[in-house]
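Escalation from tier 1.

The customer reports that the assembly of two entities below gives different structure tokens on two consecutive runs. Tier 1 could not reproduce it. I'm attaching the input and our single run for tier 2 to review.
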Amino acid sequence: MKIKIGAGILVFFALMAVLGPLLIGADPAATSEDGLQGPSAEHWLGTTQTGQDILLQIVYGARVSLGVGVLSALIATVLAVAVGLVGGYVGGAVDEALSVLTNIFLVLPALPLIIVLAGYLPQRGAASVAVVIAVTGWAWGARVLRAQTLSVRRRDYVQAARASGEGPLRIVFYEILPVLLPVIATSFLATVVAAILAEAGLSFLGLADLSTVSWGSMLYFAQNGQALLIGAWWWFIPPGLCIALIGTGLALVNFGIDEIANPRLRTIKAPRKART
Amino acid sequence: MSILEGRNLTKHFTAARGPRGRFGKRPPVRAVEDVSIALRAGSVTALVGESGCGKSTVARLLAQVYPVTSGEVLLRGEPVRAHRGAAFKEYRRQVQLIFQDPFASLNPFHRVRYHLARPLRLHGHARSDAEEREQVAELLERVSLTPVEQFMDKMPHELSGGQRQRVAIARALAVRPIALIADEPVSMLDVSIRLGVLRLLEGLARENGLALLYITHDIASARYFAEDITVMYAGRLIESGPSEELTQSPRHPYTRLLLESAPDPDRVAPPAGERHGEPPSLIDPPGGCRFHPRCPVALPVCSTEVPGRTELGEGRWTHCWQAGAALSR
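Tier 1 run:
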């Protein structure tokens, strides 16, 4: 049930991000005469101070926010898998070195670092923001995966694969990786949430590219235009709500995966035939 | 000539935690002390002992899973040291392992076919998909998992314990080894299917000239299944000989106790002269014969000096002061 609701939310936003701009096909940054209007038949979610349509911005912003979230989670997950699995399986000096690296990135204060890195970026496109977020966010996943690998590598089937003469890379990616897929999926989704939040935070602080419309930059302009003081709730509530909903959707899917991977977490017994 | 031989194998483990002795060093666990064992082609040798007596450690030393503290492993009479890299892979081509728990030794994410095809490919026995399929089918046939078409594409969770162990045996055979080390291969299986798996192993050893080491705590199954039995206690050798003679007339008091402890439906009264006790600590083992604190016929000399090997003829020998005294009398 959780996974269905969560997946529903995610599919909704994904469709919005992929199909929305194609269907509407207008410029979200285009200004008009009707500034600061509340929701109406013409502008469903109202307009900004400069007369931009909020709904249009939400739809286009979904692309940037989701895109940055997924891209940086992909990069972070690849880094975490490489560092965690290799360190955990190989052990010894390699593991020591990778552990030290992981620990350094763990204790680095992520947000200030992101801010500093983003400030020095040569160009502030969505992709470079995604890379910055990934670089600061992979360490936690690597730590979890290393711990899991340490337990899996002791299992008999890994020893048996070694006895058959399998090489270390093959063992890591064919024997250990599939077993850890639920963990990897969970950490991927958690990273997507963190990255969306980080992107919104960066944009809100004006450190991302403000000429592209994202939910974060919408919040930035709403803050600049003193939407709260004016009482223009339609300006800041939609982007905030979207971020919250995406986070909820991803978290629900994550809980669902946990329940599949760990049946003890299931609250209701599924009416399925018992397997022996 | 023996295919695989361990000569005076000794293995001391250093504990990772625990009290430190003098000079900050932790005392070693003396898991295996001066053990020699030889496997012959086409025959089954059993290594028997209770839990914690070091029999699995001997298996792992022979399999080169970890290095010996002293002593040597000989493959076809040649000393080998192959713990990593190409040498390890080459050694694996000759000596294969069968694990105790078939529920843990097959990766739940791979089909039966994958488990068998990988060693075939790795060791260059199969070069094309057609060859691979043919050889996987042949392997399944050899371990009596028929119809092979049906078993080939099964996932491990669709198989029973016995079937899984057969797959594990087939995987070991896929490498085409000359020696096979089976560490308690049937102890996790249902009693009703143990015999089938043991018969399969026996047949494979006979037909293919494999040297098989069968490690078990069950001396009754060793008697049924192995040509030779070697008994271990607390890391040391106790007695060895052809299985029928050894079980009929055990010469070492430990072997006698081990045989008596096996349930016997014809015996009504509990065995006389029962001695209780625990196997000794391997960190601080008793001096002399390690069995003397529990031995019903211990002599004064037993607690001070390690008994040497007493040859009893017909390939039998034992490490016991009593047997030595009886011979010289």
